[in-house]
């Protein structure tokens, strides 16, 4: 079974905390590393009403607070870093690259007749504005392995509560815009797939495809260990929600929950 494409409600603020929030300990003088794993209960594909339990790696590696590799963002670099000398907030931005996993027709019976959606590399850029306990995140990326896979722009906000004992909690809303190529690949039904799939032809357009909310709790224990619990709700909207794949075989309501354990190396 292919790995899921996790929604922004999970990926933007959940699977691992940001380096500033989790505060991983440095290994040597230049780099830091946290490793672990999580069990994720999520829709079997975007728009599905069937759920699957999958293992998810938790990785958070940074080098000199510039180069990073982690479960949320992929691989990238903090090339723009503006501090907060006047108390107006700080800004971090730079390039990133992630891998988008394929959606296989055999992943779920409801995908029958629709063919496979290829996987490939997404390349783009991110920006994060932080002030006090609030973070605003913007990520734009497009697949460079196959133009038909299209791209997305993701916007999210996160509020970090004051620590509850040793437990750290954050939550916030999210939204995702997708271009026409992305929408057609994941929610469209081409004319040559009508007979095999049993669904009516459908050609969605670019637009906002989902809105959601997510929450994360991290509880450190035993020195270097941390337990994380996360959950997210995403509502497909617009042409994504109107897809026959969603309306006839799935649901616009997408819920993901998970539990993870990670270890901070020194």
Q: Can you tell me about this structure?
A:
- It is a single chain.
- By secondary structure, the protein is mostly beta strands.
- The chain has a single domain (8-265), classed as Porin.
- The chain is 11% helix and 50% strand.
- The chain contains 6 helices and 14 strands.
- It has helices at 8-11, 19-22, 180-187, 194-197, 238-241, 244-247, and strands spanning 26-27, 31-43, 51-63, 67-70, 74-77, 80-82, 90-100, 120-131, 134-143, 151-160, 168-178, 207-221, 225-236, 253-265.
- Strands 2-3-4-5-7-8-9-10-11-12-13-14 form a 12-stranded antiparallel beta barrel.
- The longest helix has 8 residues, at 180-187.
- Mean pLDDT is 90; it is low at 1-28.
Report strand order across the widest sheet. 2-3-4-5-7-8-9-10-11-12-13-14
And the CATH topology? Porin
**Would you tell me the structural class of the helices and strands?**
mainly beta
The beta-strand count equals 14
Largest sheet: 12 strands, antiparallel, barrel
Topology:
Elements: H1 8-11, H2 19-22, E1 26-27, E2 31-43, E3 51-63, E4 67-70, E5 74-77, E6 80-82, E7 90-100, E8 120-131, E9 134-143, E10 151-160, E11 168-178, H3 180-187, H4 194-197, E12 207-221, E13 225-236, H5 238-241, H6 244-247, E14 253-265
Antiparallel strand pairs: 1-2, 2-3, 2-14, 3-4, 4-5, 5-7, 6-7, 7-8, 8-9, 9-10, 10-11, 11-12, 12-13, 13-14
């Amino acid at each position: 079974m292919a790995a899921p494409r996790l929604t922004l409600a999970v990926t933007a603020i959940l699977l691992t905390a940001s380096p500033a929030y989790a505060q991983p300990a440095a290994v040597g003088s230049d780099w830091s590393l946290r490793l672990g794993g999580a069990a994720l209960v999520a829709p079997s594909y975007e728009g599905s009403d069937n759920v699957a339990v999958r293992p998810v790696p938790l990785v958070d590696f940074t080098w000199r607070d510039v180069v990073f590799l982690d479960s949320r963002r992929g691989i990238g670099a903090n090339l723009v870093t503006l501090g907060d000398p006047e108390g107006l907030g700080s800004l971090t931005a730079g390039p990133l690259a992630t891998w988008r996993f394929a959606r296989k027709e055999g992943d779920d019976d409801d995908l029958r007749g629709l063919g496979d959606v290829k996987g490939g590399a997404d390349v783009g850029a991110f920006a994060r504005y932080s002030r006090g306990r609030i973070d605003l995140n913007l990520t734009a990326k497009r697949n460079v392995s196959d133009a038909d896979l299209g791209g997305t722009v993701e916007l999210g906000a996160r509020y970090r509560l004051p620590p509850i004992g040793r437990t750290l909690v954050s939550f916030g809303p999210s939204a995702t815009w997708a271009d026409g190529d992305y929408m057609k690949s994941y929610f469209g039904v081409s004319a040559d797939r009508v007979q095999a799939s049993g669904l009516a032809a459908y050609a969605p357009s670019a637009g906002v495809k989902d809105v959601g909310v997510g929450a994360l709790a991290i509880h450190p224990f035993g020195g270097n260990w941390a337990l994380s619990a996360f959950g997210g709700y995403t509502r497909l909207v617009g042409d994504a929600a109107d897809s026959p794949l969603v309306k006839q075989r799935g649901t616009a309501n997408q819920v993901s929950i998970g539990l993870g354990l990670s270890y901070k190396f020194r």
